[in-house]
Fold these 2 entries.
Entry 1:
Amino acid sequence: PRGRAEAGYRRGMVRVPPARYIQYRFQWAGRAKATVEAVRLYFTPMNRAPVWKSLKVGNIGTGKTRVQKAIWISHTKTAAPTTLKVAWKVSDPDGDPLVYRVSYRAVGDVLWRRVGDKPLHTGSYVKWKTQHLPDGWYEVRVVASDEKTNGASRVQRRARTSPPVLVDHSKPDLVGLRVAYPRITGLARDRFSRITGVAYSFDGKTWTQLDPTDGTWDQTAERFDARILDRLKPGLYTLLIRAYDAAGNARIEKRTLRVR
């Protein structure tokens, strides 16, 4: 359609179907003489959505998921970390700056709850404090948005949800623990995490790992019936027994051992 003429220009809106290219043609009625010196075409490019590369939830120090890494028996800590790192990699094909909304929910729940105090994040990770959450499996969702440089009708958002993440702050139990030198017997069990080891020590000095009855620490309940390797002289000893789970929690029980 024709537009208003100003200083030799004729302006108007060109209504065309969506396409990658545009073609145009000029026609003059009768014997009219005219020339076209310049054509200026203004358009708004299509806004493309953010592209997800990765989303990880793990320990602050290692960045690895806790349930995938066994805890060494010599580790001095007896509780799982209470802060997890939620890290992501996202790019925008248009170079738009991105903001992120981070939330979590228990697996099976409908309601998502915000991670942290800020509604929007501009970095590539946040710290997720889990010390007040009940033990169980959780999902973390991150929504990437280019709303800082696009109007409401053009904003593009893309979300990604993590695989289930275990939050486990409960120590394993030592059940039926019995010490009859030179043997230690009992059952180590946990509600969510597999048992990764049981060890003993005299006076907390050197820790010696025990073997499970079935040969592998791969269940949430493991029996052990092992022989104390230390050769002890007659007398009273303080024996410490420590059970670990895969989340990083450990329970220590103390027994007085009399050797005759």
Entry 2:
Amino acid sequence: MHELVTNLHMHTRYSDGSGLHADIARAALQAGLDVVIVTDHNVLVNGFEGYHRKNGKTLLMLTGEEVHDQARLPQKSHLLVLGCNREMARFADDPQRLIDRVRESGGLSFIAHPRDPALPLFHEEDISWDDWQVTGYTGIELWNGLSELKTQIKNWGDAIFYGFFPQYLAHGPHPEVLARWDDLLRQDHKVVAIGGSDAHALDIRLGPFRRIIYPYEFHFRAINTHLLTPEPLSGDLTADRKMIYQAFQQGHCFIGYDLPAPTHGFRFSAQGKNGKAITGDELMMDSAITLQIRLPLKTECNLLKDGKVIKTWTTHEVCTHITREPGIYRVECYLNYLGKRRGWIFSNPIYLRPPRWRTNPFQGSQWSQTTLPAF
């Protein structure tokens, strides 16, 4: 498998960001990314998909949109829409209809910043996702880089500190979002977890004082979604676009907080008599299944089954666990950075199914792997 470091959920001057697509491409190349997906609010900006190259490095830029009902007060329930070739904001008034239209158009939908609390200091309202009765979405943004700011700022001192020292901000996905995800997975919904930067390159002005806080390049070196693909980028936009969105749809990805240490090279796999699986895959139980985790460096590594930690390693780069129990297995890794324990890697699950299990193609929040959309 090939690994494509991908950053998604970012905004330009076409909505409420301060930069241009060219600024994003330049920052992404500088940060060493492979793919960026720009998602301006309620507009599908055409004409910017393609490749950027510098010093032998290639970056693919794709565009989607972040859709929400602008007439709703407060403006809750934002949805990231990827892989559609037409505007979806016109369906924003009904989240279920929006999700259905995205799926019918061959696209993917991810619930954006599921927990996004109010920040009265800056007159920001709570814009968390409230419409949890919906079905058919691809996944959720498990970790949002900018929303986490709203959970940390309590006063102007905090705001100034994190504005000048953003490297101290990230701690991990919000516990409520992790709990929600595990609950959905226990209900046999295949929900793909992604990490989003929510980059705006915020242009802050206070009298004569002006500063870009959380610039694009900072976000691109922090919370990324690492895609596992069968091939590297080919230079064929149509083929690469299809390959990238299929990796998202299949859950062949993990979230990596790359600022403390690169997460490139992490792998989580399962091996049994019925074959091999990676993150996002299902594997039928036969007898024993061997789960293997490969880490870029030795740190705290937790293996979870159905949302509960069942084993922890702290001194291994290769971690192995043999199981005979069906369940939903995923990995969380933590490391110490700037004096605190922080989330580092969050994998998508491997689904170990009992014999004769059959997945309904439209059960829960994900299609089966036999019904991939045609991007």
